Amino acid sequence: MVSNPKIGTFTSKSIGDYISLKDTIFLKNTQQLERHPLRKSANYFIEIKPPLYQKPFVKSIFASFRYNPKKLKSYKIGGMKTFKQLLFIVIVAIIIGSGCAGSKKKKNEYNKPAIFWYQGILREILFANLETADNYYSSLQSEHINSPLVPEAMLALGQAHMKKKEYVLASFYFDEYIKRFGTEKNVDYLTFLKLQSHYYAFKNHSKDQEFISNAIGSLGDFIEKYPNSRYRPYVEYMQIKFILGQNELNRAIANVYKKRHKPEGVKRYLERVDETLEKETKPKPSHMPWYVFIFDW
């Protein structure tokens, strides 16, 4: 098969398999390349390029076998590598171009009907793109302030932000809904959602003293204003949890005063502990990881 490997000229038994043109041969497909005698030769590297006169992804390939004296124990398929790099560049260019076109399209979106913005809000919520959904709400609010879809969008965004643990934004939407669209029939439910967002936002008892006090006050106001609400049991449960957290916080502060030898501070904060609730509920101390405990009080 090989007359002189060092020179790089090849011959063939069948001209249908490949045509010898010194160091260049034409193969019909990749299977023939795999069967070629120089495929595993250590003295050659292989460069594959698609024929310029044929369309891409055809069976035929244009293979060049060249002598490689510097790298006698290696070969490479350079044409396919170049093709993959070119394909990658084209894909990246398409993505960047479509992104720029999409952003340009979004900038030109204005004076749309209310249903357009509302559907966009629901679509972005479905795909968890809440930032875009918030932007759509701003457009809906500014272009159709009296639309009946505005309160529906506010409620949907509030619940979506709470599900994503963005409780500050959730509380904002619920609070705005209460101020603008609250009625006797729905105000207790909306207030409950707002208090629930505060409850889930409570993370660290030792760092949120003011937050606990405000939350307990708001929960107490709800029970006083809506004694017959169906959401009252849930609010009472949250109130108990906050009071227990406040008890633990007061004990922690009393412990700090104890270490500083200030008995008056110890007495003042221990008096704030609800001993009756502690006896009835018998709460377990909050779990604190060891790496937090080292730097804690």
Automatic annotation (TrEMBL):
Pfam short name (any one): YfiO
Record keyword Signal present: yes
Record has ATP-binding as a keyword: no
Domain called Outer membrane lipoprotein BamD-like: residue spans: 122-265
Transmembrane segments: 83-102
Keywords associated with the record: Cell outer membrane, Lipoprotein, Membrane, Signal, Transmembrane, Transmembrane helix
Protein name (record): Putative lipoprotein
Organism: Helicobacter cetorum (strain ATCC BAA-540 / CCUG 52418 / MIT 99-5656)
